[in-house]
Design goal:
181 residues, mainly beta, Porin, eight-stranded antiparallel β-barrel, 12% helix, 68% strand, elongated
Length: 181
């Protein structure tokens, strides 16, 4: 049942992304790196890629952004033979509104993401041999940032993004490059 639900949500997000792509034009592609601060953990790095879609039927400056984000954090305590890891693969879609001002463009937005979170631990000295747990959670996101024009097609951006997931909430500082089409 769990895998069927996952497949349904993945299919649902793909259908939404395809419908958005048909409704608008692809305005660009963003690649980013993140500093992730998850509830109960220290900071670590992640990666992401998203497509920016615009439609003539929507307000100027409004964009829809289907995205894929991924991070993995692992720890090892050699003295006790303990290894742990947690990873999150996220499929999501955000909507943002950009304010046009000179050479930089501040923006605000929000969205929804489907997070596939996996926890693993291997502690043979404590009698625990490779235990794992996976959970799929949907959560709302809020973001704010600004982009800076580098060339006619390339922008640099920095943003703050919060994913609200009970027990797994994440705050991210994203930095990246945006390629305009």
């Amino acid at each position: 049942m769990r895998s069927a639900l996952r497949l349904f949500f993945v299919f649902f997000l793909l259908v939404i992304s395809a419908a958005l792509a048909r409704a608008g034009t692809i305005a660009g592609v963003d690649g980013m790196t993140s500093t992730v601060m998850q509830q109960g953990q220290s900071s670590f790095s992640g990666l992401g890629v998203r497509v920016r879609l615009r439609s003539a039927q929507l307000v100027e400056g409004f964009e829809l952004m289907p995205a894929v984000e991924y991070w993995r954090n692992s720890s090892t305590v050699e003295t006790f033979g303990i290894r742990t890891s947690r990873r999150d693969a996220t499929l999501g879609v955000d909507a943002r509104y950009s304010f046009r001002t000179g050479g930089w463009h501040p923006y605000v937005g929000g969205g929804f993401g489907l997070h596939f979170i996996t926890n693993e631990v291997n502690a043979p000295s404590l009698g625990l041999r490779h235990a794992s747990d996976s959970v799929m959670k949907g959560g709302l996101a809020a973001l704010a940032g600004t982009s800076f024009v580098l060339t006619s097609r390339l922008d640099n951006f920095i943003e703050l993004k919060y994913h609200h997931l009970p027990g797994y909430s994440q705050f991210k500082v994203n930095w990246g490059l945006a390629w305009g089409l």
